[in-house]
Structure formats: C-alpha cells, structure tokens
Design goal:
Elements lengths: L5 H26 L5 H8 L12 E4 L9 E2 L17 H7 L4 E6 L2 E7 L9 E2 L3 H16 L14 H6 L8 H5 L16 H7 L3 H7 L15 H15 L3 H10 L8 E4 L14 E3 L1 H14 L2
Parallel strand pairs: 2-4
Antiparallel strand pairs: 1-6, 3-4, 5-7, 6-7
Helix pairs in contact: 1-2, 2-7, 4-9, 8-9
Length: 299
C-alpha cells in the first residue's frame, strides 16, 4: 500500500480541525450562556419574543386594587396603510406576528384582540416599550425629590464616569431621555458589537460605566442608543437606593392597577441588574395602562 503523503496528511488534519473546532466552540457557548454575553449571542442569536424565558428575572407583584375595564368591542375605523390594497387590520396583524392589539378609549376597552397563539393571560415582552416606563420612573423620582432635575449632569449620580472622561459632565439626564447624549452605539449584528453587548452582557452595570464612549457633544444628534437607558437605570438605582424593579413595583406597577405580576429580565443572577432597554414583561393589558395613566394625568 502506498504511504500517504505528508501533504495529504496535513490537509486531512486541517479539515478535521475545521470541522471539530466550530463544534467545540458551539458546545462551549451552549454551556456558558449564564456567564457569557458572547456565548448568548452565538447560541441565542437575534432577539426573540420569548427571550424572557431565557434570562433570570425579578417579579413585580400585581396590584391589591387591580384596574379592570368595561369591554365593549365597537366598530372602529382604524386607518391602515400597509401598501397592500384591500388588506384588513386583522390580516395585517396576523402576518406581522403581532401578539396583542388593544385600544382603550376613556375607561373602556374598545378593541382587544390576540393573535398567533397569544391570549389575555399571555406574558409578552415589551422590548423598547420598556424605555417609556423608564422615562415614567425618572419622572416619579423627580417628583419625589430623589432626582433634582432632568438637567442634572449624569456625573452627579455616576461620578466614576467623570473620572474616566470629564466630558461626561456635559451630558444630562435630559440628553439620555432624548437619545441625544453623543455616546457611541454601533449596530452591526455581530456578537461583539454594541447591539449584542447591550442586550446580552451578563454585567450591564460594568458595561454602561466602562464601555461607553463619547463620540460627539451632547444635544447635537438624535441617535437610538440602549446605553442611554442603561445609564438611566443606574441613575435610578443610585438616586432611589432601590433596585429598579422594586421601585417600579411600588411606584408604578401596583399604583396603575396591574391585574397580574410582571417581571423584569436581569442580565444575570450574579449581577442582578434589570435589562433596562427591553426586559420588562407582563400581560398586554397591564402594559397598556401606562398610556392610560399618561392620558388621565395629562402633561
């Protein structure tokens, strides 16, 4: 038998390594999702509506005086412009994988519809709707006097940022709320880019305090940036002396009459910081009550 040439043996070894190494890397990632944001990005990939089942979470108890509505389904001409002639609202909501559609007028639910396997008792994750709740919590902390003013520099509450870069002293809470902080955020869809890190990191506090980078003066440009929301969460923690979900349970979730417990996904058990940018979860009817409260209280 003719002996295998050295070149062929080398080729076989290289091909074997190309097959085995990715398998080993993926195996490591599957075993490391509780401790590595990179592993989460590799295994879980894009954000998903059921991600609330993957992350650890902190529960917010329902209200002792839940707010319920009279339900009266009425014929409402919801304007719909999908670019598809003749497409009705129900078809559009099903095709776009909508979980719930609720319309409240005054103290009545005039439309409440669920799609794609969801129902009124289903948990839905709020994703960026969580940012509206954060803004409301900042307003409550402001009214309570825990926060002095939305024009306060973020360094009043997060002094370590100024120690790292004095320019942080020019960024105010208002800049964070309006997504005009001038901080870097690059959405590349890669496991190590900002979009993946702000969603999957297992220590979001450290990420927000050490990975944020100023790329332009604040107030100049609107730029969607989850780092802003992470910093708002840290400010709430420092200003109120409470975990964000505890503060929300007492000051917003229960007062607005939640009929069921809500949860807030956490970065990890060890860190225990709320996923400020997207991790609020609850029933659709309870999430809708924020809009109702805003309407009833006015500006």
């Amino acid at each position: 038998m003719k002996p295998m040439s050295k070149r062929r043996r080398t080729l076989i070894l290289v091909l074997g390594a190309l097959i085995i190494l990715p398998s080993l890397a993926y195996g490591w990632a599957r075993l490391s999702t509780s401790s590595s944001g990179l592993a989460r990005a590799i295994v879980w990939m894009d954000a998903d509506v059921r991600d609330y089942t993957r992350f650890p979470a902190r529960t917010m108890l329902e209200s002792e005086q839940p707010l319920t509505f009279e339900t009266r389904e009425v014929s409402v001409d919801f304007e719909l412009d999908t670019g598809m002639p003749g497409e009705d609202l129900d078809s559009f909501l099903k095709q776009t994988e909508t979980a719930a559609f609720i319309a409240i007028r005054d103290d009545e639910v005039i439309a409440e519809r669920y799609y794609n396997g969801y129902n009124e008792a289903s948990t839905v994750t709020s994703f960026s709707v969580a940012k509206s709740f954060i803004s409301a919590l900042i307003g409550i902390a402001l009214e309570d006097g825990a926060i002095g003013s939305i024009d306060d520099p973020v360094t009043r509450y997060l002094s370590e940022l100024e120690e790292r870069d004095p320019r942080f002293g020019d960024i105010t809470i208002h800049h964070l709320l309006t997504m005009s902080s001038g901080l870097r955020f690059e959405e590349q869809g890669l496991p190590w880019s900002d979009d993946a890190k702000t969603y999957y990191a297992t220590d979001l506090r450290t990420l927000a305090l050490e990975d944020t980078e100023i790329v332009e003066p604040p107030g100049r440009t609107f730029h969607y940036n989850p780092y802003n929301t992470l910093l708002l969460g840290l400010i709430l923690e420092r200003a109120t002396g409470e975990r964000v979900s505890d503060f929300m349970q007492d000051e917003l979730w229960q007062p607005m009459g939640a009929v069921a417990p809500g949860t807030w996904s956490l970065d990890s058990h060890e860190s225990g910081f709320e996923k400020m940018e997207s991790g609020l979860n609850g029933r659709a009817i309870d999430l809708a009550k924020l809009g109702l409260c805003t309407y009833m209280t006015g500006p």
